[in-house]
Amino acid sequence: MLNLPNFLTLIRILSIPFFLVYLSYHRYLEALIIFIIGGITDFLDGLAARLMKQQTPLGAYLDPIADKLLVITSFIVLGLIGGVPMWLAIIVVSRDVLIITGYGIIIFLTDERPEVKPSLIGKFSTLLQLFTLGVALALLHSPMLMDPWMRDIFIGSTAVLTVVSGVQYIYRGFVWLQNKAPSISRIS
Predict the structure, then answer these.
(1) 113-172 confidence digits (pLDDT tens)
(2) What is the third-level CATH fold of 4-183?
(3) 140-143: long-range contacts, CB 8 A cutoff, minimum separation 24
(4) How far is CA 29 from the centre of its chain?
(5) What is the pLDDT of residue 149?
């Protein structure tokens, strides 16, 4: 049975194709509205899960998948259409690919699934990425909303924090692996 938090997460996942269609047809206001709805459902699903004590293993997997799908697809498409610089899209996507690949390598080497807890820097990085995406969408809809230098501050800050959080996650993975080194049986 699907509970409310998981239902909200499912809505977020199902909204991504609509978001992408609006972006591809240059319907930036509609894309921004769907993006905001995605952000609201992200907040509400976490709140509902805690308040209603409906945290589930399915929700623990689906929620970060929904977040990453929205962020990665948004950066890729906005990079392709010029809403954000392509180099920023590459940084954001590369960080997530490195983290996921590193996690897969850890599982392969150790046959263990370490608990993945987002760091404070990682959380701020994701939050800043979301704000930057929202700003980019708003500026695509109405370029006069803010000065270009403000957009550049969002972009620069997002790039720096994304790189810093990526380095932190890689460091944490190496430390975890080093602590497990004596028990790693797959390396000969």
Answers:
(1) 777 777 899 889 988 999 999 999 999 999 888 888 888 999 999 999 999 999 998 898
(2) Four Helix Bundle (Hemerythrin (Met), subunit A) (1.20.120)
(3) 140/26, 140/28, 140/78, 140/81, 140/83, 141/28, 141/29, 141/32
(4) 21
(5) 85
